[in-house]
Amino acid sequence: MDSATKKQIDIFDERGRLAKMLVLLRELNYKTQTKVGNVISVTFQQTQKYENGINGISSEKLFMLCRAMGYDFDLVCNGNPYQEINKISNPAVMQKLLIKFKSIDAVMAKHRKLNEQYQKVLPKIELEMNYQKTFLTENEVQQLRQAEHIHSELKNDEAQKFHVNSLASM
Q1: Is residue 107 part of a domain?
Q2: 91 lies in which domain range?
Q3: 150-168: buried (b, 16+ CB within 10 Å) or exposed (e) per residue?
């Protein structure tokens, strides 16, 4: 396959798809985030970050998780969560998962926006870190501030979700 016919892979699409598959499989197997976390030696908070798409999961942990939980590794890595969700017969569970999927999509949109902002100024920042004066333009300074603002919104959203989930589990 030549480079012109290769499909461009978006890291945020993949992270979101994987997060949806992890949530879906955990819910279908009636497991808690704590149980899943214990299997791969992480906290339930870290499991939550994997399932929300906030953090990516390493290939080693993903493989360990699939083996320990009996998940089909190929399905997790290549499956379509929307095709899998259509196999659910309980409408309430399906609705709950679809709402979760929308939340994951929103997180991925914020990460994509943040990444776009950083990509605009990153080359100059790297030069500055190597002691090469580049003097960011006013527009680039504004873009950096926007990226920092988006980053702080992500952190606030993450903290708020953790707080809400902590209260819900009490």
Answers
A1: yes
A2: 11-168
A3: beeebeeebeebeeeeeee
